[in-house]
Amino acid sequence: SSVHENGSTRNHHSEGAIINLDHGDPTIYESYWKKLGEMSRVTFLGHQSLSYFSNKKNFCWFLEPKLEEEIKNIHNMVGNAIVEDRHIVVGTGSSQLIQAALYALSDHSLNEPNTISVVSASPYYSAYQEIADLLRSGLFKWAGDARSFDKDGPYIEMVTSPNNPDGIIRQGLVNRPNGVLIHDLAYYWPQYTAITSPADHDIMLFTLSKSTGHAGSRIGWALVRDKDVAKKMVKFMEINSIGVSKEAQIRAATILEIICGSCSQSVKPNIDLDNFFEYNKNLMAERWKRLRDVVKKNDIFYVTKYPIQYCNFTGDFTEAYPAFAWMKCKLEGVDCEKLFKEHKILTRSGRRFGCDPEYVRISMLSGDDDFDLFIQRLSTIIGSQSLNDN
Amino acid sequence: SSVHENGSTRNHHSEGAIINLDHGDPTIYESYWKKLGEMSRVTFLGHQSLSYFSNKKNFCWFLEPKLEEEIKNIHNMVGNAIVEDRHIVVGTGSSQLIQAALYALSDHSLNEPNTISVVSASPYYSAYQEIADLLRSGLFKWAGDARSFDKDGPYIEMVTSPNNPDGIIRQGLVNRPNGVLIHDLAYYWPQYTAITSPADHDIMLFTLSKSTGHAGSRIGWALVRDKDVAKKMVKFMEINSIGVSKEAQIRAATILEIICGSCSQSVKPNIDLDNFFEYNKNLMAERWKRLRDVVKKNDIFYVTKYPIQYCNFTGDFTEAYPAFAWMKCKLEGVDCEKLFKEHKILTRSGRRFGCDPEYVRISMLSGDDDFDLFIQRLSTIIGSQSLNDN
Questions:
Q1: Taking CA atoms, what residue in B is nearest to A7?
Q2: For residue A160, which of A136, A188, A140, A132 has the smallest C-alpha distance?
Q3: Is residue B185 located within the same domain as residue B331?
Q4: Where is the domain boundary, B263, B287, B322?
Q5: B8 to chain A nearest CA, in Å?
Q6: Among the ranges given (A73-87, A375-389, B56-70, B80-94), the one the predictor scored with the smallest mean pLDDT
Q7: Which of A110, A124, A201, B207 could form a disulfide with A120 if both were Cys (CB 3.0 to 4.6 A apart)?
Q8: Residue A4 domain-assigned?
Q9: Which strand (E) or helix (H) includes residue A362?
Q10: Chain B residues within 8 A of A255 when measuring between CB atoms
């Protein structure tokens, strides 16, 4: 499905406007950043960042030193990942880093076809299959649901935790010899879930889009234990795009620095700077409450429930407030994406995640107007005509 | 060869420093942009460009409207490419667009293996082979020198004009049925060569790196005649990196706008704003004169000669001043890359371009200090000891 079709018209909320909750476009973060105003300014002069190189002494020669520093700072402060003795590779979003990791982990010997299987447990992030199969690579190939994977030999398992689409905390599932895991931790941040311990895996992927809301910057990063794997990822990045935009990296570094500052009470006590994670967690919690209230009332959907856990970052027990709602229609045989579409709400069908069409994934990260309209329309689905039509 | 190794130390020119002229790192442009100072400032506030989307109404939904406009303006002003009725696709540098074009032009039917051959006439840009073979795609495959290509069936020919490495103006060479051409016009700008007519091909690639000097931004663009091909390129971009950094695009738009302004005498007549192309063409002409003077004196290298042509943009007859010097050692059997390395000059061997090791490609776009040191060291190669060693 194409990203650009049927886009919602954000500034034009007539009754008939379609709202697009198919993508996780993180415009919910606009309110936090608007409050900051001038504090968040980043500027570039014409002669800056001309060179391909950011740091000739680093194996990842296109990584801006300031971004490297701020990535380490934020993980150390949040406590969501180990950064000591890890190699940092920056990418044009984490999408590009997924490919870089698949490239780095596959067998490049020329003797025989050694295509490595790529699996993930359903429901899995719909992009994994698209990415793995995009160029019909002879190095790696999508092999579907990890739950039914029974081939011998090496494999790569994508482990998304909290999971996209359903917000569940996950671990590797296949657990066979010759397996390597890529941990996609895009949503392992305090606004979405409890930070229970610093993640400590071989390859961990993060993205600015879902941590700070800057999807337009296309900045992702990988924390990689093995130097040779990291070097191969850099090699992929060299050939795929000769590195990553310096402007985006430098802005990302500033954004991460501001967030770190907002979380340390000693910094700038005279400025009204809300703690980034608390502020946005509150927004998420409020949205989830509104969603659960409506879902309870209209009584025809299941929404995933999450356990209460202790968060080391906030020092409190908390529910999870995932970036997506993973909803299932209680009535069998209903095509849930179609049902929502009839109510002018674009969602992503469970089919795209290796599941049944009774499921849909709905973004919880839209702008306020779209979210209000979503809740309003959802509330009208109680015993509605459209349901009987299915 | 890896981009990050043996980087030159730009701010530390001891006698022993290695100078890296392997890459075409365009830091020559620094002097122009430094003169501009504040005029070239671009700023971002924290809440800007959060969304994945730039323009939901455009098929290329991640293309910033302002960049689209400035791309059209600069081509119309320079007269180097037709933009009317073309579809513009933006990429993370033109490297990513080469892959997008290969993807778009290949056969996606699942029935049989239909791997399309990718060729280019030697000497060809060394990255084409690396890009085509990176993931061992089942869609396309590098098939080597276009001069010896004799397979039946569809093929893609990369036509680089002016050519990288040798600066020669080129056309398609294979001229068989079922061929499609990708024109890489990275160097078809007035500082390098005469603009003899607006290029008018099916797929034309350009890059900010070699037009304005902003290699760090990673911005390239394609002008595409066929809408379906352009749509497939966008599809590739969606999956490969979910679009292109907005910061880089917005800065690129400003940079192109400034260049356009600098070329129109009516704009800002009170500001000392040099015509971008004249200013940098003068720098290139001066460097080429210095290079040819030394090469003439030491009499052991050939350097490509270029015809005098009329440039529609400048309204003058001019030589070409390519971004790279393509040099050949007059003595047979000399490994020219090795020879230069002995003199602490990193170049790229002719082998990488499908040629003999007597050839090297040398960047003419380095910073001033590196270029001075290059000329100084080159002048010492006359009948030197190192030559006898080969």
A1: B56
A2: A188
A3: no
A4: B263
A5: 8
A6: A375-389
A7: A124
A8: no
A9: strand A359-363
A10: 46
Q: What are the pLDDT digits (tens) for A158-217?
A: 999 999 999 999 999 999 989 999 999 999 999 999 999 999 999 999 999 999 999 999
Q: Does A49 touch chain B (CB under 8 A)?
A: yes
List the CATH number of the domain containing A350.
Answer: 3.90.1150.10
| pLDDT for the residue numbered A264 | 86
Most A-contacting residue of B115, B241, B249, B251 (CB-CB within 10 A), to test interface: B241
For residue B171, the Cα-to-chain-centroid distance in whole angstroms is 17
Residue B359 φ/ψ region, left for φ over 0, alpha for ψ in the -120 to 50 degree band, beta for the rest: beta
Q: Cα–Cα distances in Å, from A230 out to A64, A159, A223, A245?
A: 16, 19, 9, 19
Partners of residue B256 in chain A, C-beta under 8 Å:
none
Residue-wise pLDDT for A34-70, tens only, equals 999 889 999 999 999 999 999 999 999 999 999 999 9
Q: Are residues B97 and B166 in the same domain?
A: yes
Same domain, yes or no: A126 and A255: yes
Task: Please give the pLDDT value at position B9.
Answer: 40
Cβ atoms of A142 and A133 closer than 8 Å:
yes
Find, in chain A, the residue whose alpha carbon is nearest to that of B244.
A218
Please give the Cα distance from B127 to B95 (Å, whole number).
8
Residue in A with minimal Cα distance to B234: A2
A225's tokens: 């234990």
Please give the structure tokens belonging to residue A129: 């299959």
B359-369 pLDDT per residue, tens: 999 999 999 99
List, in order, residues 6 or more apart from B344 with CB less than 8 Å away: B16, B17, B18, B19, B377
**pLDDT for A22-36, tens place per residue?**
999 999 999 999 999
Distance of alpha carbon A258 from the chain centroid? 21
Any A CB within 8 A of B46 CB: yes
Contact A247 B251 (CB under 8 A): yes
Among B221, B241, B263, give the residue marking a domain's end. B263
Please name the residues between 83 and 112 in chain A that touch chain B, using a CB distance below 8 Å: 92-93, 95-96, 99, 103
pLDDT more than 70, % of chain B: 92
Q: Can you give the CATH number for the domain in which B61 is found?
A: 3.40.640.10
Instruction: Tell whether the model's pLDDT for residue A390 goes beyond 60.
Output: no
Residue B130 forms contact with A (CB below 8 Å):
yes
On whether residue A105 sits in a domain, the answer given is yes
Asked if residue B180 and residue B300 are part of one domain, the reply reads: no
B371 in the same domain as B238: no
Statement to judge: residues A149 and A213 lie in one domain: yes
Range of the domain at A334: 19-34+274-389
Residues A239 and A90 occupy one common structural domain: yes
CA distance A130 to chain B (A): 7
The answer to whether B279 faces chain A, any CB pair under 8 Å, is no
Q: What is the ipTM of this complex?
A: 0.94
User: Is B36 in the A-facing interface, judged by CB distances under 8 Å?
Assistant: yes
B192/B234 same-domain check:
yes
Q: Give the gap in angstroms from C-alpha A56 to the nearest C-alpha of chain B.
A: 6
Beta strands in B185-300 (DSSP E): 203-207, 219-224
Is the peptide bond prior to B162 cis by the omega test (within 30 degrees of 0)? yes
B43 part of a folded domain: no
CB-based contact (8 Å) between A298 and chain B?
no
Given pLDDT bands bounded at 50, 70 and 90, which one contains residue A269?
low
Q: Is residue B26 part of a domain?
A: yes
The predicted model gives A121-137 an average pLDDT of 97
**3-state DSSP call for residue B369?**
helix
Number of domains in chain A: 2
If you average pLDDT over residues A315-327, what whole number do you get?
97
